[in-house]
Design a protein that fits this description.
This protein has nine helices and six strands, in the order αβαααβαβαααβαββ. It is of the alpha/beta class. The N terminus is likely disordered.
Amino acid sequence: MSDEAATIGQRAILVRHGETAWTMTGQHTGRTDIPLTERGRAAARDLAPLAAKTTLALVLTSPLRRARETCELAGLGAQARLEPDLVEWDYGEYEGLTREQIDARTPGWRLFGDGCPGGESSMQVAARVDRIIARIRAIDGDVALFAHGHVLRLLAARWVGLPAVAGSHFLLDPATVSVLTHYRGTPAVKSWNAPLTFYP
């Protein structure tokens, strides 16, 4: 066993759901409960053979359909528990708008710094992901989380002890898998934004 393998701790495997119609159009999809496209479903199925080989102590999924579908098609639906704290950011008045439409209304707007009128601030989302992180760290074994782009980006920042606004530095595409862990007791990112066919 390598020195690195011996010192890597529990893994939190983050899966961002696959493509939706709004992903394709660039619309902010918070609480709007839309399904995956066929391409999104195909990407989720790509994870199934690899997920079947992984022993997981806990599988959590956002209650929103696109995350649940991804989890089910990956073969982990029967094991999954719904976790309301994993729902996507509440975009409030910006729900369904593209970045260009938001910029026209609020020039210079930044989600992680400014939050959303009528929706959530980054600190409110951070409170949710901090609860999830505490729950994960109380478990002995690996955990898989099926959720959404912005909430997972903020979760990664909080995992390594960064402020909520630092979520802006973790870009995350649809249908990707990322792995958070600990290295010699320090929270760490092992892999980030990899396609679902890659599963360390």
